[in-house]
Amino acid sequence: MFEQLGNYTAFKLLALDPDSSLGGAVQFFVMDIVKILVLLVTIIYVMGLLRAYMSPERVRKVIQGKPKWFARLIAILLGGVTPFCSCSSVPLFIGFVEAGIPMGVTFSFLIASPMINEIAVVMLASILGWEIALMYVGAGLLVAYVGGIIMERFKTERWVESYVWKIQMGEVENSPKKQTLTQRHEYALSEVKTIVLRIWKWIIIGIAIGAILHGYVPQQWVTDHLSTAGNWWTVPLAVLIGVPLYSDTVGVIPILEALLGKGVPLGTSLAFMMSIAALSLPELLILRKVIQWPALALFVGVLTISFILVGWTFNFIQSVYF
Length: 322
Hints:
Number of helices: 15
Structural class: mainly alpha
Oligomer: single chain
């Protein structure tokens, strides 16, 4: 359906040449923007019904006082089902610190929240299939768990800015007090409005970049520079390119789809996606207001190495099994 709509708009309505770069770019843009917005609104609404009574304060109370290994698992799972991008996760990060939750657990949430969410999983599955989508989720969970442990071993609480300990974290979201179906419906609609308004521009930018890559970047150029899984340096390069950019996993998935369509290996594409979602420059600038340079450098180093290893692993799996 989405592909047919893209074909009709580009080749019938606008009368573009199907073999032209512009025609291919417009077809890709229309097809993906409709598909992503439909998925986005539907999934946010459904998850909003389930989260109608879950506030950040309640999230912190669930984690507080639990054994570290158990608290870390809860933090990662909560990070995976809460619709926070990298930047909007930072205020909740401050709340975790203020609540006395161990830093390793807090960093596990900070890593998992922007990198894994139900919207991205469904969209990845629609593009790559559920097997790859679940493998991505598994890799993200592992990075969040191990990354949190490493951050904890370095005693990063000593590098938290002093004012953070004095912050009294309030409610970030206003959840309905009563649990009636009508109020949950209203809350879910407000979630759709709030989240879509917050990230729509990143979705359009991501789809536009994906459309340009799809329509204008020559297949041979991609093949020569990025599409060989045997070139070990393509994965680190993809991670470094992704850091200055800012989007969430939803916004970067169209770029991922276009890169895969150009023959870029799966691991290289996923490493690029991870670096944009969880290691963006805007997030680092905000996070610097919370933690000092040593902790920030450690955070960047841990995630950079993790994403490179994940990329190499997926490239190996692709070369052997796919």
